[in-house]
Amino acid sequence: MLGGIAGLSLTPDEAAFFCAADPWGFILFGRNVDSPDQLRRLTADLREAVGRDCVITVDQEGGRVQRLRAPHWTDWPAPLDQARAGPRAMWLYYHLIGQELRAVGIDSNCAPTLDVAQDATHPFLRNRCLGTDPAQVAKLGRAAAEGLLAAGVLPVVKHMPGHGRAQSDSHHDLPTVDADPATLDAVDFAPFRALADLPMGMTAHIRFPAFDTVPATASRRLIGLIREEIGFDGLLMTDDITMNALSGTEAERARASLAAGCDLVLHCNGTLAAMEPVVQAAGAMTPEARRRADAALARRRPPAPADIAALTAEWRALSA
To answer: Taking each helix axis from N to C terminus, what angle separates 12-21 and 36-50, rounded to the nearest 10 degrees?
Structure first.
């Protein structure tokens, strides 16, 4: 499991819970972020609670979805707006984001979003995408991922196998995508196939009736498609299982997701009472999940030396 905490610092109860639960890693949100010094203390305390250098991730896509903001960090433009500047600018954009994250102890980013934008893509997602052409999305997604990796940050590609055709917000409802398998394969799945070598991915809480009646996160057929047809053998986490697109209790959602073939459950609301049954339902990682987790960790590197001022100037010039 990847879990969250309620506030700006780790409480004694949270520390004791995570020491016993031993989650694979943590995810942070705006509620956990105040200043660089505070965030460095928090990430150190989270690792101390589990006794190892675990992964700590965040949603720092740019645009509306960024948890670290001014005045201490850069307010980045939306990825779809940034996409016009090309691959080098995208590499710089995510490399600079990665450098900011690594400086406060965050070593993973739930980005890039490889969903292919459509005219009808729901507004909650559309400007988080990298374009409307799958080849462009793959090219820019590769630049984004490589920029993060060079900063010592593990990318998490999302939302597999593709969220772009969804016309509702999966935080509130279960979207249904009625496209046929050939269209989905040629457009929606294509960027994920092109980046199938990346270390970590996140599922989509979307129903694809052409394949199954349940959301992709809980579908053995669709997780099998991600593994076999898309070819992704990285660590696969669910999107947040507290989202309303999923049905049943959170423990039932966790069991269904893991039974379908997901490696990890992502639980984001940060309350111990809600996490406890999920931890019990999730249990220990399977040997295959552990293998993928170890492979992901092997891709984590110290940040490359960087002249941040020069890279920022280059990015601003390319993005102007």
So the answer is: 40
Catalytic positions are 171, 239
Are 189 and 208 in contact, with CB atoms under 8 Å apart? no
Residue 269 carries which side chain, given as an amino acid letter?
A: N
Residue 169 has pLDDT above 90, yes or no: no
Transcribe 150-182 into DSSP letters.
HTT-EEEEEEET--TT--S-TTTS--B----HH
Instruction: At 180, list the tokens.
Output: 């046929």
Pairing of β 25-28 and β 2-3: parallel
For 195-205, letters b (16+ CB in 10 Å) and e give: bbebbbbbbbb
- Measure the CA–CA gap between 202 and 225, rounded to whole angstroms: 14
The pair of structure tokens assigned to 194 is 């092109």
Instruction: Supply φ then ψ for residue 261, to 5 degrees.
Output: 125, 0
Q: Report percent pLDDT > 70 for the chain.
A: 100
Placement of tokens 């040629």 in the chain? 186
Tell me the three state secondary structure of residue 207.
strand
> Whole-prediction pTM value?
0.97
In sequence order, the 6+-apart residues with CB closer than 8 A to the CB of 270 are 3, 4, 5, 6, 29, 31, 32
- The alpha carbon dihedral of 54, 60, 65, 66 has a sign of positive
